[in-house]
Amino acid sequence: MQVRSQADPTIGADTMLINADKGNPLFDRNFNPYLTNKRTASTWIYEPLVLVNPLDGEQIPWLAESWELPGARTIDMTIRQARWSDGEEFTADDVKFTFDLFQANPSLDTKGAWQHLDSLEVQGDHVVFHLQTDDVPALAVLGVTCIVPRHLWRDVADPSTFRNENPVGTGPFVLGNYNPQQYSMDRNEDYWQAEKIEIAHLILPGTSNQLDTVTRGYDWSYSFISDVEGTWGAASEHNKFWFPPGGIIALVPNHTVAPFDDVDVRRGMSLALDRARIAQVASEGYMQPAGQTGLMLPNQQEWLNPDIPDQGMVAQDRDGALAAFAQSGWTLQGDKLVDAGGKQLGFALTSANGYTDWTRAAQEVQRQLGEIGLDVSLQLPQPAGYQSALGNGEFEVAIGGMGGGDVFRAFNDLMSSDFVTEVGKTTQANYERFSDDAVDDLLTAFKSSTDPAAQLRAAQALQQKVYDELPVIGLYYGGLWGLYNDAKFTGWPTEADPYMAPQNYDSAPLGIFTRLRLTGKGGAA
Amino acid sequence: MTALDTAAPPRVSRVPGAGFPGRYLLGKLGLFVLTLWAAVTVNFALPRLMPGTPADAAVAKLSQNGPVSPATRAAIEAQLGVPDGNLLSQYVSYLHQVLTLDFGVSYTFYPQTVSSMVSQALPYTLVLVGAVTVLAFVLGTLIGVASAWKRGTWLDALPTLSGSFLSTFPYFWTALLLLFFLGYVLHWFPTTGAYSATTTPAFGLDFLGDALAHAALPAITILLTSLGGWILGMRNAMINTLGDDYVTFAEANGLRGRTVAIRYAARNAILPNLTGFGLSLGGVVGGSVLVEQVFGYPGIGYLLFNAVIGQDYPLMQALFLMITVSVLVANFLVDVLYGLLDPRTRK
What we know:
heterodimer, A: alpha+beta, 5-stranded mixed beta sheet, 15 helices, B: mainly alpha, 14 helices, disordered N terminus
């Protein structure tokens, strides 16, 4: 039986029904953009200085009209002319106030601005950021910070628990009707690029299930749905989807646990795997296998090291795998890979319970490594337990997500020894606890150069390290699950025009709202 | 005093001066307090045995949308905090919280307090599950009486068969079937929420009708799946009493059929069903997790589900405690009621 999408006839042709916010069970009226439980739309009411495309790290001037880096330790931003939705003028003082707010309330500093920042000063419509070290990638961190109005927030007694029920921002929409099960947003007529916004209203219902996603006539949704063509796609001829890579799903071997500290063992595991098959099984064929460079392709194609063969794709090669295992003393006896003492090579593979695509990938890895004699068992704790095991280093091999649009940050989080802590102490990146002085030097070089050519050289050398040392073993890309309907609005980001990630959380929608055009034909069907 | 009155079972509730021994009551009360303390303590220990902190849960949730930066994690930890102090001091402050009914700030709904979340969700569950539980009990018991009285006719076969058939379906399966056919295919009922998104909760006929329409599918689910149990329970107990001498005697005395069925047989047969009713009233608060989940009904069950997923200790503890206490209180009341109705249990 085919379920068809049923548009709500009361929703106008200029109004977008968007499936972006989950109330659980009811919406909490919380529009503080820095709290974990904020309403999704708070990052469309408050805007960042720089809009970063999560697909490839492209930086788009937003509340900052332009910027310069006089040196690797200084960022000089020119602030745009804009107004808060209550009519007050947006100024450089608001920017300084926001960063001062984070310094006083570290729990609000969700992007980690003060890990980079030393001080900042206002000079007319300029804000000058002084950094702690030579730190060019700090621009991406400071830039994505949402700016709040000084004239309202300076009177807030405790910003870290402030629910900001009546938000005033610079963004394209202002809060309309609010109700614990649904809220609406109205176009901000004084928006600084109001001429680009054709959407008059947004409606955000609290959503509950995937049937709801498919049948309700949403213009924009974000969700992995099994058999997307047969469900979302079949529900309406205008229903489209685009699933670009948004991260890399990888095997994370714990380098503090033998024999995973041995690069030959890691190489053996890598060569034993058929990544195309894993990608197929895990993502129903919607995602591509990932190469061994740490880059997301094609998003980050321009960074790719041309010396690495086959764009970093590692083909399954069982003889090569056995040869690599043999290098570190594991040989095939019967159908088991054993060491000199006859002990079989094996490990517990940790993933999170309920992450079904990861679980399917883990089962496929278990099967494929089993075929060349490894004994792999699966461990599937609850997500919090998984996260805790990963952070504390209490695992043998785990499945994890990594990468991201910002190339420096992707490599830094993957391999910087700054994150290495002893087992039992939580780390927040580099979960495999990889450490290499040469890599740290490359990261420093990358970070401290304002010269794009030097950055590219460092990035390419880092890819070579990922390829040779296998800190983690890339499996397949994690997707961004963009579902949209082009009956009422056109101009969505697509594979042919990947101007923004198709996600409807964080700031990315700002870039999409400004590009969507009305078709004039109402009623998504 | 007529012969008929002596033929009837003794009206135990009116036995004059039979006295309701204080010792019995005191014993039950002591047991109640002891169980409550044990439940509260288990309630304290269980979430702490789960691996991972609330921040881990929040990061795990975020990381499904892509890698979470170390800075974000640090801010989340600062917002949610990490349970501090040794276990003993945590236990003492927990007991204090329980006594003062202050369960602090929820992690998943930060910075909302637990009590505000619970008071938002509780009315929906009480009204939906509570009303349907009462309705199912009354309906099921009446149908059970009727089918036992008309044993062997279609009036017996139909409810007995369909009742036992429906009650074998798992709760959520019935819920999904109803949701799909009545909600998505036929569009008879709204599919999610407790009221239309465009209405504002207010006292008035409009809102009431809207809320009833939204409660319809979950209510039908609970009714369908629980009715069979009441019917069968009542029918079987009733058939037993119908065979008793005093019923035969009453019939032989030429009393009207309905009088015999209701006043003689049913009144005695209802005791076991009454126990079940007490217990299911106690289970109202926590008994609807799946149904509320399927229909996106913003009650306690849905809240509990989210609390567990989000490793929200304060919220989980408050909800578990509410569920435990309501079951314990229901148990206690049933015990007391039984002691009142049937002196044999007091021995």
